[in-house]
Amino acid sequence: MRKDKKSKARSRITRILELPQEVVSNEPKISLIGFHELLIENYKAILEYEDFYIKINTHIGAININGFNLRLKEMTGDDIMVLGTIDSIDFESITDE
Fold it and tell me: Does pLDDT of 6 surpass 70?
């Protein structure tokens, strides 16, 4: 019950301050520019890295990036940029059992 009250209060503050959802949550934001540049905000870790496949962990699951000549251009504590020819992106969500 207490967690629900905190969630409602956080939601109300977010609306009042007009903050983007990705700023106040751990959910990733994915921006794709053409087929050659991908920015992921709110990532946790790089799980696998090859020039044809990159797997990135987030708070809600893994993001799999398939392509050619993939490389990491920029990484900060919260954001990561992938460059190369991106063929596909798929998601592995975390399921609560």
Answer: no
Q: Which helix (H) or strand (E) holds 5?
A: helix 2-17
Catalogue the E-assigned strands of 2-96: 29-33, 37-41, 43-49, 53-58, 61-75, 79-93
At residue 23, what is the residue type? V
pLDDT digits over 66-80, tens only? 999 999 998 888 899
* Residue 17 host element (H or E): helix 2-17
Domains of the chain: 26-93 (2.60.40.2000)
Contacts 24+ apart (CB under 8 A), 2-11: none
